[in-house]
Each structure stands twice: as C-alpha cells, then as structure tokens.
Amino acid sequence: MHPGSAVFEQPNSLLNQLAVHSAPADPLCSRSEWLFSFHEAFTPQKQLILRSNETSVLAFSSWEHPVVGALLEPLEAHWFFSAPLMGPDCVDLLEALLQEPQQRAQKPFLAISGLQVEGALLKNLLRRIGPEHEVGSLEPIIFRSASLEGGPDGFLSRRSGKFRKNLRQADQRGRALGITFERCLPRSDEEAQHAYNRMLAIEAQSWKGQENCGIGEEPYSTFYGLVYRRMCRSGAARAMFAQQDGRDIGFVMGGVDGVHYRGQQFSYVLDWAAHSVGNLLQWAQIQWLCEEGIARYDMGSVLEYKLHWTEQELRSHTLIWRPNR
User: Fold this and answer.
1) CA distances from 268 to 167, 231, 237, 242, 273 (A)
2) Considering the domain boundaries, does residue 281 fall inside one?
3) Would you say residue 300 lies in a domain?
4) What is the pLDDT of residue 44?
5) pLDDT at 283 (0 to 100)
6) Listed residue (184, 180, 288, 181) closest to 237, CA to CA
7) pTM of the predicted model, to two decimals?
8) Could you state, in chain order, the average pLDDT of each consecutive group of 10 residues for the chain (325 residues)?
9) Cβ contact 79:140 at 8 Å
10) Are 105 and 171 in a shared domain?
11) Separation of alpha carbons 43 and 76, rounded Å
C-alpha cells in the first residue's frame, strides 16, 4: 500500500468528504473503502498515485499496459464506477502530476471515469488537458437510484400499482412463513468477518453460488470482504439478514455516506427463491434507511429488475486521453 494512503482512508478524509458532492452518480464507490479494497484485491502490483491539496484529491494507479504503454487509470478500473478527480482544484493537481519528471518522460495514456457530459469538470479537462491529447470514450454507465423522500410511503407512491400489490402480498406471505429480518451493524473486525462469513454461506446456496459466479469466487470474495470490513470500521456498513426458523436464507449488504445508500450485494438461498426473499430484503432495508434519514437509494448500474425499484437515472462517462507523442 502507498505509504501516504492512510490519510486518505480516514472515515472523514477529504477524499471521502468530496465523494458525496463530486461523484453524483455513485458517491460510495468513490470512497476509500471501495477504492483501496479494489487495489488490494485486484491490482496490488500497480503503483498508487495519490495527490491532494486543501480542497481537492487525485487518486489514480499507474502501470505499463501491454498495448498502450504507460497508463494512468482510476484505482477501480474494472467497473469504472469511481471518480478519480474530485474537488475544485483537481485539474490543477492533474496538470502538476503530468509535469512530474516520470510522467513527462512516459507521457501516459489517461483513463478518467465518473464524468458528467454537462459537468464543469469535463469542460475544464477538455480545455486544459485536451489540446495535448486525443480523446476517446468508453460506453457510458447508466446508474439507477430511488428517492427516499417521504419515507417508505413516499417511496411506494413512486412505484406502480402492480409493484405495490406484489410487494404487499409478498410481505403477507413472508410473515405467514415466519420470515424475519436482522439488522447487522458489526462493531469490530471480528464481528464484521463473522457477518461476512454468513453472507458467503448464503451465497454458496444461491443460484450465483451454484453457477460459480458470485462473491464466493476470487478475487471477488476477498474484495467484498475488504469493502465490508472497511465500511464497518468507518460506520458506513449496512447489512440485513433474512431468517426463517433460525436459518439464514438471504442477505443484502451496502453502505451509506450520510446522504446516500449504495447497495453492494444481495443474495438468497435457492430453495427460497419462490418466496420473494430478495424483494422482502430490499424493502426491509429501505424501511431501515428511511428511519435513518437517508435521501437516496443507489442500486448501481442498470439491470432490468432495478427499473421497478427506481425512478432516477444518471449517466457516468469514462474518457480515454491519448497523448500526442
């Protein structure tokens, strides 16, 4: 790990404070819990490039790409959910970085994610960095979110009549079957690891576990374990377990930044798939978040089932900056 990364990992670090306002599409995935966990689990061989001043942060990793050569990219460059440039002076930090002797010699490609088409940051980058680069783009990421304004009733008022009816019926069936929900807020690494082990046990019994495509597979198992433990230390973690007759049958896990909740993973055992356990978990989590005054439920990149739970959509863009060599 970068010797100076500890200051970025503090719960109230400038990086984590800026994520709320500088990464509108996915603030939690621009926080330290997500970024440094990704680096440790996926790309420990890459060099961390961290810079900051009193108002802004720059967080990249550097490595030698086999095709393009020197490359500066976001710390999390698998899904490209994060924003590596945050704060009003972040372009100043980037310009200063590119003038450092090593970067001037290498003339790296740049990958910058978390950009908004109409945002001031992109316009600033095009004006100040663009003339020395050719600029291309990846496919935009579409994020789905739900407002929690008005509490559970407000959330339901923005859903369709069919959605409300199905959820009400599922809730009634769940109660009749004795399904209960446990709110989980670990206070130590040991408690966090115990809770995560419960999640892995549920995942192993799910369809994702049966098809070897869930968080039980590496490096995802290590990654989400690191994310969850870090979120527990910072107080951001929120997890919910569904149980029936003392048996864990499902979980939902994510984190809050004081304003938003971002779902990370949820799963349920295959033999309970017909009983809407996933929907009941989401609903129980939403009720908990409304009690805490959370304003928005972020569900991440778009999938069909998320359309029924959300009404807000944001696009995030990743641009590739090829240096004029």
Assistant:
1) 17, 22, 19, 8, 7
2) yes
3) no
4) 97
5) 97
6) 184
7) 0.95
8) 77 95 92 97 97 97 95 97 96 97 95 94 93 93 97 98 97 97 95 98 96 95 98 96 97 94 96 96 97 96 93 96 89
9) no
10) no
11) 9
CATH code, domain with 210: 3.40.630.30
Co-location of 84 and 170 in the same domain: no
CB count within 10 Å of CB 10 equals: 12
Instruction: Give the angle 17-19-23 at the CA atoms, nearest 5°.
Output: 155
Q: Which residue has the tokens 């039980």?
A: 216
Cβ atoms of residues 39 and 60 within 8 Å: no
Residues 261, 319: one domain? no
Judge whether 34 lies within some domain.
yes
Q: Which domain holds residue 247?
A: 149-294
Count: domains in the chain:
2
How far apart CA 86 and CA 163 sit, in angstroms, is: 38
Q: Are 254 and 261 in contact (CB under 8 A)?
A: yes
CB 257 within 8 A of CB 28: yes
Four-point Cα dihedral 61, 64, 65, 67, nearest 10: 150
173 & 133 share domain: no
Q: How far is CA 19 from CA 237, 240, 254, 269, 296, in A?
A: 16, 25, 16, 34, 15
> What pLDDT score does 24 carry?
86
- The two structure tokens encoding residue 158: 């923005």
